[in-house]
Amino acid sequence: MPSCVLADPCPATPCATRHARHASSLPWGAVIILTGLLVLVGVFSAARPAFAQTPLDCPLPAGVTPPAAPRVTAQQVEDGSASLTDFALAARDHFVSDLQERTRQQFAYGRCLIRQEGSPWRSGSTYLVRLTPDGRVYDHAKDMSLSGRLLTPVIYGAILHALGISRAALTGPAAVLAAFTAVAAGDGGPFNVPDVPGASGYATVYIGVGLQRPFVLLAGFNLSESHLVPISDEAIDYGDPPITARDVVDRTTLKAFVTAAGEYIVELLESGDLSALSKVRIALRDPNGPWRHGSVYLAMMERVSKQILFHGGFPDRFEYRRGGIARDVVTGELIVDQLIAAANSSPEGGFWEYYFDNPADAFDSAEVPKVGYARVFSGQIPGPGGTTVPIDLIINSGFYLSAEGTGDLRGVLENPGPLSSQSGVRALWGWVCDAEMVEIEIETAQGEVEPYRAMYGMERLDTLETCGDTDNGFVLLFNWNRVGAGEHTVTALVDGIELGRAMVRVTTVGEGAEEEFLRGVEGECVAEDFPYMGQRTRLEWQQESQNFVITDVE
User: Fold this and answer.
1) Looking at the structure, do residues 108 and 202 belong to the same domain, yes or no?
2) What's the structural domain count of the chain?
3) Residue 363 lies in a domain
4) 531, 553 in Cβ contact below 8 A?
């Protein structure tokens, strides 16, 4: 008789925690409260480990040399050992000189550091904001959700005055470039708007790397929503996508949505209009526009450096930070690896499935999966003197596989669970309040989908409070050997509407003609110290269920 011994899950420690009576001592389901630079990512199921979604620091990429700190740091301004003027000019000089010779990855890492609290660039109320020459926020070290917004005329007028620029002289693109290029040779100066709380700081100008475009650099200005022109007063070109965020309900509409977004963004980039590029952030982030609806939003990453240039769901958490710090909240895998693999899978990009925080649901669970679609988009940004700068972007979006957007559909696919292991003949089940027909679709690793009709109307007393009745259960008896070993996606459809989805890992024991139903074999084994220490559980192969079943516990 073959023997069977449970693998020790904790070889370096006492293993009492593997027994059912000690389940409460396991780390599963514990919400990890992380201080400092970690983010609390939500409420997780008691059946899964909790993973911190995103540390808000800047991990140093392999092979990248950290940039030198500015000669005057934000901390020195905060402790009074240096002036705001010294810090602003040190930052300006750093942008002009040190970053000129850096690789794209080094440059991206430097941009991340500028946003990081506690770095030489940001401490307390001392941080940097960049503006385009028309007074639009290009990036905001403290609150990236304000990027793209326009300063009020009175505040920007004060900044121009501090720089020594006459607004009347800004008559066209050539005049604007000439005026800002001229003042870039000077130091700028302090500004203050007495009647506007917080509207003060230091302003200077530098010419940006690569495109040789001027930027206004602000230090010490605690720029907030109150300093900006309302979005309703802006003229924003939202484009006219054939599929909007509101229309995204499945893979087909998701792919069309991302494709339309990529074409819209590349067109604006190739226009070379910095103001239009800033405005696109408003368009992509506006919940009342075509590019953002509920939990459906866009994100954009620079392909080479992996720097996240835009994130419609969590701008302050991710923008200007390098992809590779966010993990799948169930599996712990790096999301950026899945995203890049999908984008590179074909010229038209590809899909992947993962688990991620839902910005539209403060109480979402890690058990709710998300389907993502990513694609590479390339173009050329016009530079000075007829030159161009190549761009290579990965643009992605996704939708959550939950009942969101399904109207009054109430129910859940309970088994199989996400990422569960399956074998033999098993039942798939769940419940839904009202249905004419429940189908279970099972997708093979090769992408083939087979629908199976489930029995519906079984008594479920636990659904009485939610549904008002109890005949709401559905079940499907299925032989997993039919689909073969590997990863498979299970989808429950209620009258054609998706109720839930789970990816499972199937293991089979048959070979050749016996692959679907293994016959004529016998086997027993004993699991030592299970379910409790000192007990032995006997398992016996059962042909009918194509699985081992418990026959005795000693």
Assistant:
1) yes
2) 3
3) yes
4) yes
| Each residue's pLDDT expressed in tens, for the chain with a length of 554 residues | 444 544 333 333 333 322 232 222 222 222 212 222 122 222 222 222 333 333 447 878 778 888 888 899 999 999 999 999 999 999 999 888 755 556 777 777 888 888 889 999 999 999 999 999 999 998 899 999 898 899 999 999 999 999 999 988 888 888 998 999 999 999 999 999 998 999 999 999 998 765 568 999 999 999 999 999 998 898 888 888 999 998 887 888 899 999 999 999 998 888 877 667 778 889 999 888 899 988 899 999 999 888 898 999 888 888 888 776 678 877 788 888 999 999 999 999 999 888 877 665 555 555 567 889 999 999 888 876 778 888 899 999 998 875 444 445 678 888 887 778 898 899 999 999 888 899 999 886 566 788 899 999 999 998 888 888 999 999 999 998 888 888 888 889 888 888 888 878 888 886 655 577 888 888 888 988 888 888 899 988 888 888 888 988 88
Instruction: Identify whether 63 is part of a domain.
Output: no
Residues forming a β-bridge with 459 = 471
Q: Is residue 130 domain-shared with residue 203, that is, in the same domain?
A: yes
Contact in structure between 426 and 439 (CB atoms under 8 Å):
no
Structural domain of 254: 245-400
Contact between 297 and 313 under an 8 Å Cβ cutoff? The reply is: yes
Q: Is residue 52 part of a domain?
A: no
Do both 392 and 421 map to the same domain? no
Tokens linked to 136: 């639009």
The position carrying tokens 């992408």 is 447
- Of 211, 197, 221, 209, residue with least CA distance to 135: 221
CATH number of the domain bearing residue 448: 2.60.40.1220
Backbone angles phi, psi at 194, to 5 degrees: -55, -35
Tell whether 87 and 229 lie within a shared domain.
yes
Is there a domain that residue 469 lies in?
yes
